[in-house]
Amino acid sequence: MAFSSTQALVDIVDDDRDVLGSLRFLLEAEGFEVRSFSSGADCLACPLDKSPDCFVIDYKLEGMNGLELVRCLRLAGQCAPIVLITGYPDETIPAKALLDGVRHVVLKPHVEESLIAHVRSAIVEGALKRP
């Protein structure tokens, strides 16, 4: 399947404004269309006139953690793949994420090195699952 980032919409959720801005810049520089949210509640409250092709969600969010947001998104009918980012080297996070259907987990010190590859891979996987 051919991949073109210019056709892909990525929603980012991170409560750290500096990280949110950096992630947005990184993805837009690669040609992705990006919407950004500073909380899980903001993401859930946004009328999604256009469903994203991928979510990039921080694990540690104010009010709810990233996996709680994942569960809320799934309950709301969002089936887009998710890339979870975390600054916590807790070895249980990837296993917990996998239980919630999140196959891509990126550690924050390595975000710039691997986020784009994970987002592209998640979008392709998601596209292959669509009818």
- CATH classification, class level: Alpha Beta
Second-tier CATH architecture: 3-Layer(aba) Sandwich
Briefly note the CATH topology name.
Rossmann fold
Helix content: 40-55%
Can you tell me the overall shape?
Answer: globular
Q: Strand fraction band?
A: 15-25%
N-to-C order of helices and strands: EHEHEHEHEH
Structural domain tally: 1
Distance between the terminal alpha carbons, to the nearest Å? 15 Å
Q: What kind of oligomer do you see? A: single chain
**Spatial extent as radius of gyration:** 13 Å
| CATH homologous superfamily title | Response regulator
Class by helix and strand content? alpha/beta
Low-pLDDT segments: none
What does this structure look like?
By secondary structure, this protein is an alpha/beta fold. It has one domain (5-129): 3-Layer(aba) Sandwich (Rossmann fold), CATH 3.40.50.2300. It is built from 5 helices and 5 strands; from the N terminus they run βαβαβαβαβα. β3, α3 and β4 (82-86) form a beta-alpha-beta unit. The longest helix has 19 residues, at 111-129. The protein starts with 8 loop residues before the first strand and ends with a helix. The relative contact order is 0.18. Keywords: Phosphoprotein.
Give descriptors for this structure.
single chain, 131 residues, alpha/beta, Rossmann fold, 5-stranded parallel beta sheet, 5 helices
Write the layout of secondary structure elements.
Layout: E1 9-13, H1 17-29, E2 33-37, H2 40-45, E3 54-58, H3 66-75, E4 82-86, H4 92-99, E5 104-107, H5 111-129
Parallel strand pairs: 1-2, 1-3, 3-4, 4-5
